Amino acid sequence: MCAERKAIYISDMGRCQPESAISEIAEHGHWRAIPYEAEGVTGRMVVAGIECNAPTLTLPLDVEGWYAIHLGLWTNWVDRVVRVKLTDDPCFTTSTYLYPDIKKTNYFASMGEVFWKCADLTDQGLQIGQQSAGTPWAAGIAYVKLEPLTPEEVAAIQRDRARSSTKRLVAYNDAWSVFGERALYTEEDIIEEVEPFRDTDFQKLLWGMGAGSMVQHFSEVGELAVKEGMSDFSRHCDRQAAESFRTLKEKGIDPLKTVIDHAHDLGIELHGTYRVGGWVFPPRMIWKRASIASILNGAVWTAMARPSPV
User: Distance (Å, rounded) from C-alpha 75 to C-alpha 108?
Assistant: First the structure.
């Protein structure tokens, strides 16, 4: 970025819409607006406690053209997670700011700036959300910094995104923890796990399809991980994952197909993986009838062993 360029700071987060979602006090179901002063910036931040279940806000950006977007995140006592998306983004992405190590810093709270992405902000607003479903997180955002890009910089960004010679990275997602931690109930929830790889050097995504006799996609032979008949779980995340799969099944949303489609939209290969660790799970993890015969069906092995991307 050019040193002489003047960045735009949007530091009054209290101007987000709707106004009815913002309060001056700590109130459930509302973001709390708090005045602040920091080095080089003053304004009002919005924060939400871990149990707040705050609604989505929209911040008008009122700019045109390409900018580098930075987020000023706030934390005190606990780590903060803020979900953000531009108006025409397909889903939210997550920005995290960790609670400072008081043994090293001697303070309990801090504000930190993180880079999000470069984008054309013409006719765009910024939507701000809290992670409330699944494992909830506190959230706090103090400002948005927009750094204008020159035509030369935009052209360089577009060339870099278009080239394929550097796309060599591989990511892995076991497709279980995310269902237990975040509670994925919709297609938009699911593609949040893929969207961060947009315009990056990741070429392949390894996605968990099952473990033991359990599968994490619609199947005629494996048992979908709804854990039918089970109401007592060893871990909270396992209950949440089962509820996620139950909800998706009721809605007719196949999580694997959803991930494959979005990965292909991003030009990323999707490779299914299978966790080998025994045919059935031990007591407390087992549910209904974990049938060995069902997983030994040859059709399953053919699908699991296929080396080409799906």
Answer: 8
